[in-house]
UniProtKB/TrEMBL annotation:
The lineage of its organism: Bacteria, Bacillati, Bacillota, Bacilli, Bacillales. NCBIfam families: RNAP_delt_lowGC. It comes from the Bacteria. It comes from Viridibacillus arvi. This is Probable DNA-directed RNA polymerase subunit delta. Keywords: DNA-directed RNA polymerase, Nucleotidyltransferase, Transcription, Transferase. The gene is rpoE. The keyword Electron transport does not apply.
C-alpha cells in the first residue's frame, strides 16, 4: 500500500481515492482511534461528499472496514489501525468482541446437537417396527387369559365364600348350651 498523504492531494485525486484508503490515511495521521461516525465525518469533509453520497456508500464502507486486515475494532464502535497494537494488547482491548465469538461458537455447538438429534430420530424411525406388536397376537393372549382365568377365579371365590360362611355359622348345640347355663 502506498503512503497516503491526503493533505498533499488535489481534489481530483481525493475524489478518486477509496473510502477505505482515506480511512487508513486519517487514522495514520491522527495516531489515535476514532469512532465510526467520526471517521465518516472526516472522510466526508476530505472528499467533499454530500450526505446522500455518504449514506449511499456507508454500508459497503463498513463492510470493507471489517474485512480489511489493516483495521481493528476496539469496542464501542472505535476503530484503529492493527499495526498500533501488540497481539496481547489487542486481546485485552477487544475482550467484548471475544464474547460475541463465543456465542457464535455456542450456536455452532447447538447446530451439531440438533444434527445429532435428527440422526437419532432417523434411527428411531428405522427401528420402529421392532417395537410394534402384532394385534392378532394380543387378541389371542387375551382370549386365553379370559377363558382360563375367569373359570378359575369363579371356583376360588365360591370356595372362599363357603369357608367364610362356615366360620360365622353358630352351632345349634352351642346355643342350647348357652341357654341352659343362663337358667
Amino acid at each position: 500500500m502506498h503512503d497516503l498523504n491526503f493533505r498533499e492531494m488535489t481534489k481530483e485525486q481525493l475524489s478518486e481515492e477509496s473510502f477505505i484508503d482515506l480511512a487508513y490515511g486519517i487514522l495514520d495521521s491522527k495516531k489515535q482511534p476514532l469512532t465510526f461516525p467520526e471517521l465518516m465525518k472526516e472522510i466526508q469533509t476530505i472528499k467533499g461528499c454530500t450526505d446522500a453520497e455518504v449514506k449511499e456508500r456507508l454500508q459497503q464502507f463498513y463492510t470493507d472496514l471489517n474485512i480489511e486486515g489493516r483495521f481493528i475494532v476496539l469496542g464501542e464502535n472505535r476503530w484503529g489501525l492493527r499495526e498500533w497494537y501488540a497481539i496481547e494488547q489487542i486481546e485485552e482491548e477487544t475482550a467484548p468482541t471475544v464474547k460475541v465469538r463465543k456465542k457464535k461458537a455456542k450456536a455452532v455447538v447447538d447446530d451439531e446437537d440438533e444434527l445429532e438429534l435428527e440422526e437419532e430420530e432417523l434411527d428411531f424411525d428405522e427401528n420402529f417396527d421392532e417395537f410394534v406388536e402384532d394385534p392378532t397376537e394380543e387378541d389371542e393372549e387375551e382370549e386365553e387369559f379370559e377363558d382360563v382365568a375367569i373359570d378359575d377365579i369363579d371356583e376360588d371365590l365360591d370356595e372362599d365364600l363357603l369357608e367364610e360362611e362356615d366360620e360365622f355359622e353358630i352351632d345349634e348345640e352351642d346355643d342350647e348350651l348357652e341357654e341352659e347355663e343362663e337358667e
